[in-house]
User: What shape does this take?
Amino acid sequence: MVSLSRLSNGLTVIVHHMPIDVAAIYVFYNVGAKNEYPGIFGGSHLVEHMLFRKIEGLRGSVDELVEGVGGYFNGFTNYDYTVYVEVLPAEYAELGFEIESKRMTNAVFDPSEFELERKIVLSEFDMNENDPDFRLVYRASMIAWDVHPYRYAVAGLRSDLNRVSRDELFRYYRRYYNPGNAVLVVVGGLGEDKAVELANKYFGSIEPGGESGVIKPWDDGLQGRVRVELKALSGETPRLLIAFKVPGAHDIDGLRKTILADFIISGDRAFTYGLTSREPMVVPRSSRLYRLVEEGLGDAVYSYYEVTYMNNLYSIIIYNVKDPDRAIMRVEELIAERPSEDELGFARERIMARLVFSTDSPSKLAQIYGLSQLFMGDPGRLISVIEDATKSDTSEYIDFVNNLLNRSISILYR
Amino acid sequence: MVANKLFIRSPVKDVAVLDIKLNLGSLQEAYPGIANVLIPLWRMSNYARELERIGVSFSFEKGFDALTLRVKARFSVVNKAVKLIEDMFLNPVIDRLSDAIREARTSISINREDTSVRSVAEALKVLFNDHPYSRHPIAYDYSFDGITKDDIKRAVDALKVLSLTVVAPEDMVDINLPYAGYAKVPISRFGSGNVDVRLEGKVQASITIAYPSYGISNLEGSFRVTVMNTILGGMGLISRLYREVRVKRGLAYYAYSMYWPLGSSGVLIAMAGVRREVIKETIDVMLGTIGNQVISEEELNMAIKNRIGRIKVTAESPEGVAMLYSVIPTYGLPADYYEKFISYISGLRPEDVSRELRNLSKPAIAVVG
Assistant: This one.
């Protein structure tokens, strides 16, 4: 059973005990691309990199401490949040608390290390740019928003990453990395009392302060339908990206409808990929999107979608597209089609199965609880929204997708 | 019970995970690339659609030694799922062969756009010469045009299950298809040398340095190289390649190594992604790092603890358990394979790992981008 408590300095602590030899310790900070501004686009991600460098008061580096006991560690920067992860054999779980408490306050941002990390983040940017799908989605973002911070995605702007100073990002770190802006999630083989005791031991003495990363949801940019054409590099597979703006998690009812629409349109590929499992799933053949391949309009189709706090893009990519005009029209027809009871039943089955599969390990549960707490102020709410998606009916679906189709981006890459 | 089946009881009540390995890896294909075409032919069937309808998640992964079907189902529907899987395997939609070939070709061309995948494919071509391992399962430049309906029928007739691993609350799952043991294909000679493939417009190039190594049935050898790889580049941020290439010099976002102990051989691969202007510097740093044979006690102990702890952490989910244990029935490894692994590596000395580094032969080096 999941429990929630709050330390006197404002740190939210979520604990779920499971009878397993592993403990997943996740710390979510409410800071990400959404908090960036001109001059530091991509900075949240660079800060995350710096938090794997020198941290005062730790007995060793994060990697040595965690890898040395066979644990797994990671960090992810997202549109809305940044999360740090340790998955440890349960007997070493205390190590995760120690690392994360020090990370919250004691990162050094050594200037020479900062310059090295800047180069590494730029190299990551290069790696992303090597991928034509990334280039298309990134371009779509720039069309989807004018000045909204989602415009440059999480990767940011190369020019900002080249110029941003160590001091500016250190201030950014001090502003947002504080207990009141963080959620500690502990799932696995640690008892609830023990987890709360360790949270108090390591985080309890941290002074409150800094700022909250919460922002009021807003949107701008895309009105109507936009179509652009880009030249593909020689040897690359031609493709067509079609993207729609879908509601963010701030709009719980919109999220519920998006989930149902995703399971009808893409089977579950996009939702699953973006939520927890990062499984290399293909679009199911019984999904609507796959009909594009069945009808010879393309040779493969994928979709991408990630649950974010504010409205974001739901992207569909068709590879080796034969007749782009026809493909765009057909995608819109497929999305707008009234679902049969049979089709709704299929979507409901898969939603419930996905929910079971997304909650069967400490790591997956920690991710869901943390997201749910940040977006909805309740660790269990996201699970109930997913369950509620099965209760939507045909007319709700039709109203929802008709609205989506009014704002779209098509990018032909050939 | 057949020797190729392994059941592991799972504490997760509602979920069953199956790992089904078929004799359609790069090694066993009578017609190279036929597994890549069979995958869409299977997925087109009504049996596959019915699997999707009942909420079963499944994905195919073609490897060197097997084609794996990974299945995740609610336990209440797992027997129905297995029946559908059997029917799917035996009834590919052969009439749509040309569509399947088109899909397979597109999938390969997308994979080959990825410079890191492509660089591994190019290095393996050099390292394994004319052995089937020279054909990267999902990024080799297969010629699909000659595949006929008869080839597909023959592949289905010859279909065998190499192993079935079941992670579930109860042992009530089996598959009604013929089983076969894994058969090695010996390697006559390994190749070495350099290959450089330039792809227009890529901002970054990938480097792959590949060395021959022990296969999985050489338990002690593969255990030693597993620890060596952990120190070299398989332990995240503290491994040597990561430190030398990324942390100290900031040359690359990724720099790591992998060890694949396969059934007929093994391969150790070191990788990094960099801009063209620093390729030479990076390769020199990588080769220098791999060539450093001095192993400290502290480094070794950390690697050993890492490997032991990682087994526990990998097993946090049912699919992690299946991934970990499926090698046992596939290659006929001892049931206490991981106990043996832990016991053996716990007794390793620095010189045991140094010797493995010293014995590395001349590599195949591929640069793509």
Observations:
- Chain A touches chain B through 71 residues (CB under 8 Å).
- Residues 2-203 of chain A form a domain with the Cytochrome Bc1 Complex; Chain A, domain 1 fold (CATH 3.30.830.10).
- Residues 234 and 365 of chain A are 43 Å apart (CA to CA).
